[in-house]
Design a protein that fits this description.
Elements (H helix, E strand, L loop, with lengths): L4 E9 L2 E6 L2 E7 L1 H10 L5 E5 L2 H4 L6 H9 L4 E4 L5 H9 L4 E4 L1 H5 L2 H10 L4 E10 L2 E6 L4 E6 H10 L4 E6 L11 H8 L6 E4 L5 H10 L3 E6 L1 H4 L5 H10 L9
Parallel strand pairs: 1-4, 1-12, 4-5, 5-6, 6-7, 7-10, 10-11, 11-12
Antiparallel strand pairs: 1-2, 2-3, 7-8, 8-9
Helix pairs in contact: 1-3, 9-11
Length: 254
Amino acid sequence: MITKRIIPCLDVKDSRVVKGVNFEGLSDVSSPVELGKYYSDNGADELVFYDITASSDGRKMFTDILKEVAETIFIPLTVGGGINSLDDFDRVLKCGADKVSVNSGAINDPSLIEKAAKLYGDQCVVISADVKRVGGVFRVFAKGGRVDTGLEAVEWIKRCVGNGAGEVVLNSIDTDGVKGGFDLEMLKAVSDAVDVPVIASGGAGCAEDFVRLFKTLDRVDAGLAASVFHFGEVKIPELKKELQKNGIPVRVTF
């Protein structure tokens, strides 16, 4: 049985990790280098690094802090934010990323995923979708959740996977930072529609939320969270013990 992955997320702005609610009201948390090392040493399966204002600011990702993080950790690293071209893929991969997450860049140029998958392999290309309900429809948002693209989320994600994305990160704007649990309805719609790994993001508030996620949706491969890990509300070794107790397979290092 494939083990479920637990993935902390570093939302980085001005070289600091920040966190908000529903993608708004950002507050300072910590140094991404220190936090990345902590997670690498304490049982995280992977790490996600998002430069959360690169797309909305219309700039390239800050790579100095990314290099420091990559040099400090010993787990796979996925990097996103301001990825708009093959040159951007090349730049972050050379900084130490294992996978590259693309969101607004794919919306602006849908051929980007196909070109990147052919050049670097499907396993390197992650489609990250920021999704919110609008009039009862799952809609894709761009620019860090600021702009409604009008795209229906499930069809968009299916298209990206068809073009070569090897993994999906589904960010529910509705549940982001609220700590009321993952968006199971949205995750089911997406995981039923694609045959690549789906990572749940947005809404984790306690260990039970991860248990419920994996018990309810066996096709979801990983749970991603930020603030509950950053503020010590959920510690990854304890979370994995709880998952094991509930019959959910995880990688253990303790």
